[in-house]
Design goal:
alpha/beta; 6-stranded mixed sheet; 11 strands
């Protein structure tokens, strides 16, 4: 049975929209082109590091069709807050996600919420997808198994030509960015965690959940991710992948950040 692949995007900050010479800008454009010209999904369900549900044990989903963008950043020039990314939600798709999640005994609450920059800034680089986009939150917890099960709950949407995208960063330590800003070399923990993530994601699907959960126990985990919000989206993606293998498409370690991009499953020819 044909199904869409799952993508994990390391989205960076909103400045990626203007940093056209950055290698990650070009890679995000390549992935966007692959989605729009080869996968050709009818809709997108996206999970971003920048939305955790308010209530423990529950997730939230945008069920509104028209919302404003969320400019969830500060300290940037005014033009960043004037950016636009045309998008529309879809009530029927939101209802499908709700049904799938509830069938897995996960509590989910429909809300009205716009896309945050973890979605729209990277999607803008990828170019408009021109299909409905429904964003769903993470849990408020840092439980990798809980997020993996969430991915498993929505996996069947892939059989309906619905694209699942999870957005975070492979390594994300903003506290140390001041020590490494402008440098091209990755910090030691960036390099070590980046490779550990690759091994876990590319492991056999039967071992993948355990190996990915073990990442959070590594001695360098809290250096690579002082909080795990930017890591947990890839656990959702891996859960949604089912028996499909994960593959690192590209990586770039840059100070206290890694821009690794992943895909689970292959693009149908």
């Amino acid at each position: 049975m044909s199904r869409t692949p799952v993508y994990f995007l390391s989205h960076g900050g909103p400045n990626i929209m203007y940093d056209t010479d950055h290698p990650a800008f070009k890679k995000l454009q390549e992935i966007g082109k692959e989605i729009t010209t080869k996968v050709k999904p009818k809709a997108v369900v996206v999970f971003s590091a920048h939305w955790q549900a308010e209530r423990a044990g529950q997730i939230e989903i945008n069920s509104a069709e028209t919302t404003d963008l969320i400019y969830d950043f500060y300290g940037f020039p005014r033009k960043y807050f004037e950016e636009r990314y045309p998008n529309v939600g879809n009530k029927d798709l939101a209802a499908q996600v709700i049904e799938a999640v509830q069938a897995a005994h996960i509590d989910i609450k429909p809300v009205k919420r716009g896309l945050d920059h973890g979605v729209w800034a990277s999607f803008k680089v990828e170019n408009p997808l021109n299909v409905p986009i429904v964003q769903t939150s993470l849990f408020s917890s840092e439980d990798p198994h809980q997020h993996y099960r969430l991915g498993q709950a929505v996996a069947k949407l892939r059989e309906q030509n619905i694209q699942i995208i999870v957005s975070g960063m492979a390594v994300h330590n903003l506290r140390d960015l001041r020590f490494s800003y402008g440098g091209s070399k990755p910090l030691p923990y960036t390099a070590s965690f980046d490779e550990a993530l690759k091994r876990a994601v590319e492991s056999s699907p039967k071992d993948r959940e355990r190996m990915m959960a073990d990442l959070l126990k590594r001695p360098d985990a809290r250096q690579a991710h002082p909080t795990f919000d930017h890591l947990l989206p890839i656990h959702i993606g891996a859960g949604a992948a089912g028996e499909d293998r994960g593959k690192r498409l590209w990586t770039l370690g840059e100070g206290s950040l890694s821009w690794a991009q992943y895909r689970f499953g292959e693009v149908a020819v």
